[in-house]
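Hi team,

As requested, here is the filled-out complex form for the pyridoxal-5'-phosphate run. I kept the field names the same as last time so the parser does not choke. Let me know if anything looks off before we queue the next batch.

— J.
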Amino acid sequence: MNIQLLDLKAQYEELKDELTSAVLEVLESQRYIGGKKVEELEQKIADMSNSRFAVGASSGTDAILNTLMSLDIKEGDEVITTPFTFFSTAGCIARLGAKPVFVDIKYDTFNIDPVKIKPAISSRTKAIMPVHLFGQMAEMDAVMKIAEENDLYVIEDAAQAISATYKGNKAGSIGTAGCFSFFPSKNLGGIGDGGMVVTDDEKLYERLKIMRNHGSSPKYFHKYIGGNFRLDPIQAAALLVKLPYLDKWSEKRREHLDYYNQMFSGYPEILVPTINDYCVSVVNQYVIRVKRRDELKEYLRKNGVGTEVYYPKPLHLQECFKYLGYQNEDLPVSEQAAKEVLALPIYPEMTEEMLTYVAEHVVNFVKNN
Ligand SMILES: *Cc1c(COP(=O)(O)O)cnc(C)c1O
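And here is what came back:
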């Protein structure tokens, strides 16, 4: 068998006709920037996320960047976040001249550890940016409590967690704003780059819309320095086709998670994902922890199974952040995770036979090593 980490072909085959006509519709309309498709998607994502407003973005990264800019995060400010995430989370903070302040994660969920946030707060702290990693939301009650006590914004990086819930609340709806990505590997993936910000704050909503058009309002009069952060209508059209399937796909991912977990029970060497009972995860990734991770990865590769390491180097130790002065062992939980994690294939269209094949090879490896 040959099982890639993610195979989008099966989904494409199922939606080919719908997608083709949706894209053609945009071509025929000649409306290539903004317009109805973008507005319709914004409305639907806002509704689905239990948020009052949504603003499309050119990527998940630009959703985050626009949010930070619209909240006037700037040079000298500090934003507390996790080092165990995709680069973009901290990259956006640093690009504005603000300082990413990294705090360690919880061992079981890989999400930011609220206990470690308080000691990291300074007079310059403006915001906390929790990341809902692998599809499960961070400890939002604790994060919100600290934020309220210290008058901080909370920006949820929900790129991997669209439609996940925490105690019944949708990802993106708890903080000041939530940011989604429509990168093709995310649960709701476009046919290229795309993203969205959701918020209940009307003032922030108005500012986000101005900032995505170079800060101009009215046109050619620039009150702010913004950027081109617009969502492409072709992406919006494709995403509108896919959106009705999202819940079904996420349910499939949860079933696959249960199946893998069952296959790995009885093997304490394989640490399976911890999903808190007050969270519904959308399982963007199925990440196990093992010793000898690199050898397992190679063994699986030889047997036709694609895997990935999310993430091999925590952000506080990245070369570009050397100036922040972090050292090895400063954030040990993240550093240990980086050595042990391995994401296995878990896309919705996988069959039981495929899941079994992957799981049996993982089990074989730990039995024989
Ligand atoms: C994918 C992702 C982003 C960025 O999204 P893009 O659409 O690729 O720009 C940000 N944060 C996290 C946690 C992500 O997984």
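Two things worth flagging: The chain has two domains: 8-102+109-244, 246-368. Residues 246-368 form a domain with the Aspartate Aminotransferase, domain 1 fold (CATH 3.90.1150.10).

Thanks,
J.
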